[in-house]
Amino acid sequence: MKSLSVFATLLGLLAAGPCSALSTVTLPVDFKPPPVFKNTNLVHVISVEKSYAKEQINVLVENVASEPQAEYFLPFTAGQIARVGGLEAKDRKDDTIGPFAVDLVEYDGSNDVQYYRITLPTPLKAGGQYPLAISWYYLDSYRPLPASIAQDEQQYLVYDFSLYAPSAYPTLKQKTEVKFSTVNIPDYTTTTGPGGKEYPEKLGSKMLYGPFDEQPAGAYFPAQVRFEFTKPVIHVETLERDIEVSHWGGNVAFEERYTLLHRGANLSSLFNRVKWAQSQFFQPATMALKELKVPLQVGSVDPYFIDTIGNVSTSRFRSSKREAMLELKPRYPVFGGWKYPFTIGWNTNAANVLRTTASGGHVLKVPFLEGPKQVEGVEYGEVNVRVLLPEGSENVKFYTSIPDSSIVETSIGVHKTYLDTAGRTAVTIKAKNLVDEHRFRDLVISYETPLMGTLRKPLVIFASMLAVYAAAWAVGKVQVGFSSK
How far is residue 57 from each of residues 201, 400, 456, 485, measured CA to CA in Å? Predict the structure, then answer.
């Protein structure tokens, strides 16, 4: 929002309508995706480089029906559907086209196969082809093997997947690529392809399977990889993010409450603090979480860091014209299976994130998700964002670039705080299964504040103080004592 063109773009997004929770399409119990497409060529890319798995399908889709088609279905198992997050579909050759509309199909809860429906921007004519890019994340992706290790041992994780990409349509040609953050991959599935060629082909920290011959719809080839991951597996069960806007104070206050869990291998014996202190002199690779780095918006001030015990002093804040970095060190190193709940907060000048429109309204632009930025990545099971606007705000509209497939609930209500009368307008957005790659996706809110709404609080304070003074004057006039008669 630093230029007029960006500001105009934000207003255009708001004019298009507020964001909404992921829509669910109800279909007959015996629903099966119509066989109107085939995948002419498909590349399945799997990344296990972070605490979560990311999968992407780059596919050339062909309409084999006699009429134009616009609905492409993507299947998941019932176990996968609860862990899928951030599903987006775009034009593979042009990133500016998309993301496309994504709906969760509801037809038979007892069926092991569930579907997402992707709606193309324009129906694909008969015989036509379209380059489609679909990406999503799996939370709770891995299991440690062994499940328990010593304090100074290396951690290994296992990921189960299919060599054939999930598809409701036949695929003529496909290959699968698996990316790692290490070259230490002791165990993996092997197979033989056309001509007797053995797969996978190893290229450093990458494995290539295929190309495979034509496969029918729903084809599945179970595979597994076990790889070294000497980093923490960071999972945030719940993040509650509050943003409070104050016009009179010219300030926007942020507070984030985390329930953090390490999903890596548990300790096979009790934690040895002496051994841990000794190891810090030579800084070995460890799966323990020792620190968190939280980049904030430039201009952020007054940070704080507390946990269930109280204020945590092991933090550092660096701020300049180019960056604002909050570095946190928990009270103790967090090992596999351990939890660490904590709270951070900070303030920023309202002028950095709030603009006034020509008609006298206001537009607030803040990140939907900030949080730690770690090499190993961070996954979020549930994110609840609440924005408290000034009292009396009305005509509220909001938009976020978080994938629609992850938004589960949105609402506009009222929240009462200190010195409020009617209460503040509160915008609440709940999302699930997000990852740190969604950091700094925009949340844009437009609203208006009528004159009486703006003056309500100072008038109430003035009237209250006047009443106190009048009461004090009246009490002072009362004569207390005994008469001489």
Answer: 20, 24, 54, 101
Q: Are strands 407-415 and 315-319 parallel, antiparallel or unpaired?
A: unpaired
Write the CB contacts of 97 (distance below 8 Å, at least 6 apart in sequence).
Answer: 90, 91, 121
Element of type H or E holding 78: helix 78-81
Q: And the tokens for 199?
A: 């797969």
Letter string b/e over residues 424-457, b meaning 16 or more CB atoms within 10 A of that residue's CB: bbbbebbbbbbbbbbbbeebbbbbebeeebbebb
Mean pLDDT by 10 residues, the chain (485 residues): 48 56 66 92 96 96 95 92 93 88 79 90 94 96 94 94 95 96 95 85 93 93 95 96 91 96 94 84 85 93 92 89 92 93 95 89 94 94 95 90 92 78 86 93 91 64 82 81 64
DSSP 30: T
- Whether pTM > 0.85 for this model: the answer is yes
Where do the domains of the chain lie, and which CATH numbers do they carry?
Answer: 29-228 (2.60.40.1730), 234-458 (2.60.40.1730)
> Which tokens in the block code for residue 143?
């299991």
**Host H or E run for residue 8:** helix 4-15
Determine contact, residues 175/44, Cβ cutoff 8 Å: yes
How far, in Å, are 297, 426, 427, 429, 452 from residue 422 at the CA level? Answer: 32, 12, 16, 22, 12
Q: At 428, list the tokens.
A: 């609440």
CA atoms within 13 Å, Cβ hemisphere of 458: 8
Q: Which residue type is seen at 123? A: P
**Of 345, 366, 361, whose CA–CA distance to 446 is shortest?**
361
